[in-house]
Structure formats: C-alpha cells, structure tokens
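Comment thread on ticket #2218

A.B. wrote:
> Attaching the input chain for the structure job we discussed in standup.
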Amino acid sequence: MNKFVIAIVGLAGAGKTEATEYIKKKTSLPKIYFGQAIIDEVKRRGKPLGEANERIVREEFRDRDSLAAMAIANLPAIKKAFETSSVIIESLYSWEEFLKVREEFGESFKVLAVFSSYETRVKRMANRPVRPLTAADLESRDKSQIENLHQAGPIARADWTIVNEGSKEELYAAIDVILSKLL
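C.D. wrote:
> Ran it. Output below, let me know if you need it in another format.
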C-alpha cells in the first residue's frame, strides 16, 4: 500500500464530516483537523474557546501566513503522522492550503470532494443538531468561503467527487469505491 494524504473538501452541509468520520472509522488512519492549530493557540493564550476568540487567532494566522496559514500551521503534525501512516486532513478549505499541501506531498496528496445541491444542504443544515444554519446563513457562508477563502479551487481540482444526494449508505458505498483504489 502506498501512503497518501487525503483531504475531504466541500461546502457546508455537503457531507464532509460524515465522509471523514467514515474513512477514519473504516481505515483507522490518523486525522489532522486544520482547526486544531487555532484551538491550541487560543488555549495557549489562556482564552476561552469560542467563535470570537477563534476568529481573532485565525485572522492573525492568515494575516501572518496568507490563506495557506492552516496548512503551514499543521504541516508538522501531518509530516509526523505521515512518517508511519497515511493521513486524513479535515477542514482544508482554501486554494492556498491545497497548493501548500500539494507542494509538500506531491502525488501522495489526494482530494475527495463531497458535493450536494444547495437545496439538499439547506435541509441538512436546518436539521443539524450542532450549529444549525438557516438558508440565509448558508448562502452567506457559501459566498464567504468561495470568495474569501477560495474554497472552490480544491473542490474543482479534486481527484474524486462524490455527489451526496442520497442516504448515508449510498455515501459510504461511493467512498468504499475510492478507498479500494487507495488501499
């Protein structure tokens, strides 16, 4: 088996977390959560975790290191995990992050995009038990993530795209096909 680094990308409500957790459970691969660097820094500063403090740190990181900041902050953890295993990346968003990870891992870097229609994502986000979003919130978030974080680039350049409009079982079956090519 060749080692790989796989990032699961997509817009809010597409099914990224479901796909990530399924792959992690099925493969037991380590997962590097890009937001962990922000959480760690907020804690290091002795501040309570929450959107306001996390946003301050996230913006400081991006002011300092560009939109590649989360990749830069997490590269040491990814490299360490990659010494002994393939790795899953959760929450890679920007084109700049994509380019940074690809620069580091080359052909070993793979991207799985999970796509769902806006209508499907609105329904999912409204029913999500944690951090639900209204249709207006989702539209605003899409606009921000596409325009400000350049999130469309990694989705467009994915090695595989799964259209996630059905059941979890259908999503899992589509992921299994991709995993059979990697493992």
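A.B. wrote:
> Thanks. Noting for the ticket: Residues 51-65 form the longest helix (15 residues).
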